[in-house]
């Protein structure tokens, strides 16, 4: 309808059903080169031999897990597909997808532009199925009906759920291996010699005070529980698990490329080319404003090309705003992390004043747990702010197309949320306890408050606590509660708003017999797949980046994703308006982000093992310094001596009951003893261990990278059967069109022979028609040659 004919809002909601006639659908299908099925069918050959038998066994075993949805009668037969042409009569007759491409395209005549200009309030197709076998929690154990999802929502959303399903399936083996590694730590905890030495009260390791004045000397055996817990995650099996997870990430990405290619083949996307997108309405509005401004202040030197597009000069204010605000947001994240550090230091000092012995003995546990919870709350709040800020920053950039807009939005949101989610974890893993100093020369944050140290068993246990609470908290609160609660609250708010603005008569009529379009209007509008991908990508980072410190991360991710698949399905079917279908061959920039995280995980895990854990110091002691090749004496080897008389005045423990009996205290570091010529300098052992740490990082990184490249090389991107089927389809297509042309020519010849009189009287007309068929045949062969070259390249 024209804008002036639309009803006013005071008259209530008005719905318009849009219909596209056949000639419009066929024209748009031809322009978009949408591949449509022909009448020709051919057999899809399956792999033979042992692979076929294994596939049959697998199908029988997983039969109870298959969704009960309509299936094709003969799945071994496939329709031959070819880009639609109005001149060909042998195509199938369904063109529903074209409707959405034409009317939702952000062109000046499309619905998107009319919505942007407030002509229409919303436009959406109607919901009608897919709940029983997909969007219920009761079918969590079943596979997803990916083909039906694709037909219902389009290829772009179908690829997302296919990717999510494959990722969830791949988490099963990594979860099993992670549980085995954790159980190995539980089983070997009683035989771990360093833990026994630390827990042995007969070993009189008198440690230096943890703070000035208020803290007393303490015995290392009081940290027995922390040392035993650290062994659960700090053992030789974690090195193997880190290598396994790096290869797992590579295999997952390779398998996804293969599945993506298989889906492209069965969904007739193999020949899909990226078409030039229409500009976004916001871009066209900005460009129109620029043209009007130039027209009012035009000069003869104005470049004509600059009038037709937005240049970098036009976007410079947006670029400056993006750079400055993103930098500010990153600094805000670092400030939040620093604020939590100050909280930990001051709270630990305050609890040390307590007269309660239990409170003083549990200072480290209390401070760690409360600080992690504060970190989680800050991360959740900043995540929501950063999402809105990233969208606003992308809008002021004024990208030309929807694809460019989406990619820039994804990069900004990912950068901000990545820094926000992992900054506290990076601090604990690589910075905490590294710049403390030594007794007598401590580093202070501010007057009287030292930089915080790691626990006697190392920072790995605290890193595990930090990672687990943040990961589980984000999954439980942000990924589940927010996804369920926020759409329902928005739906309720919109309903209450509509009830206030609509006339009572219309509201009463709709409540008695609500139509589907009215029900769908009350649902939340679909805003894209970026939030769905983002939460899974951040989870993928938790699973891979610091997996050396938390082997159970894949298990918790698996349990979350089993719910997440059905939660997303239910949200798409019952909480969101049905989105318009969008064709896509891949998941876009998300694959590059996944690949980058996989490569970064190799480097991070190498540093976690070599720097954060005690794996390298233990290895060096056993094979370089131990007299009998065992771990006996390792704790004494890692502790340095300090003469308590060298403490600065005013920092000695006050009211210490046994300060007079202590001549030397111990602290964890590799330094020369006070009686050596160079007291408190780094010892030879320190430099040897540091060299071994760096050597391990280089060796680990190169070994894992080599194995990843080897796996990538061994697994082809395109499955062999799909590659052969593409070649076969090309051959069958050529034969099919040649046969059609031959039949047409035979029809012309028979027609000419049958009626010589009409042939003689209309020789000229017949020749023209025959020539047109010959010309059509040549042009068709040209299009087939183009089709052939595309598939040969694939």
TrEMBL record:
GO terms for molecular function: intracellularly calcium-gated chloride channel activity; protein dimerization activity. InterPro entries: Anoct_dimer (IPR032394), Anoctamin (IPR007632), Anoctamin_TM (IPR049452). Residues 149-729 form the Anoctamin transmembrane domain. The keyword Transmembrane applies. Keywords: Cell membrane, Glycoprotein, Membrane, Transmembrane, Transmembrane helix. Residues 9-90, 109-146 form the Anoctamin dimerisation domain. This is Anoctamin. It comes from Dromaius novaehollandiae (Emu). The lineage of its organism: Eukaryota, Metazoa, Chordata, Craniata, Vertebrata.
